Amino acid sequence: MPASQLLHIGDNDVADAQAPRKLGVRALHFLPFDHEVADFLRLQHAASSLIVLDQAAPESVVLPCYSPFRPIFAVANLRPYAPETVIGYMSFGPVLYAYARFLMDEVEALQQQGKRVKVFFLLRDAYLLSAACEAYARKPVGKLVRIGRFVAVAASFKTRADVDYYISGIEPEYDDFHATAKRLLLPPEVAELLIRIAHQSDDPRTAFHQLLHDDDVLELIFKNSLALRLRLMRYMSKKMELEEGDTIILADTGYYGTTQEYLARTFEEELKVDILGRYVFASDEPYRAED
Fold it and tell me: Is 237 within a domain?
């Protein structure tokens, strides 16, 4: 059959249109997307290459870019710059879809092991995760709860060892005395006094940490932490309806899992529950992995 009687159809301008025509083959360039969608996909691919941190840029650029909504882009009458298009399809939507599928698979796997699973989405960041999971599962999934990192840490101080554990995790370059005192629930006037005394030393950081171990200071930390811990336990019992033997999944955006770490240290044995974390993004080095 002569080349002129062949018709080649494809979506690549070079491989499916220009090259066949040079060989005398009739070619039809199929355009699956309009220009706006094509630009979005190009930007999406460019952005995805930036997060492949373990590879050189030239190598990461040629990696395939998974986009589960390409068929929708081709057939749907999308408004290119509408919020639901930009967020839902072009940017965070694919991530939300992937996370919802991941979380529901994790819940099913745990249930198959005989676990009684309860999912809690940590506000505010996990609100969209909750909505995505509900849309994916076509039914409500878990509950929205307000337990932040500050509360999880501040409610954890039962012993001197707990205070040491918290202090040992503070990187020197981020050791803000006021922030540390606030996390330890020290009253402002006490915090200011300790900080002022510490700054009179040649080594304020060491001096401040030593002052935190004074018996009177520790007693104040334990007292305030206990009050917060009891409030948190009441909230968890009432809002989260926890029962002995539950497997708790904390759903959040991530990154180190600090909230999960401190809640597990504080409540796993006391409430006799397992506390797991399932995140959108997670560090390769979980919080205090060595412990």
Answer: no
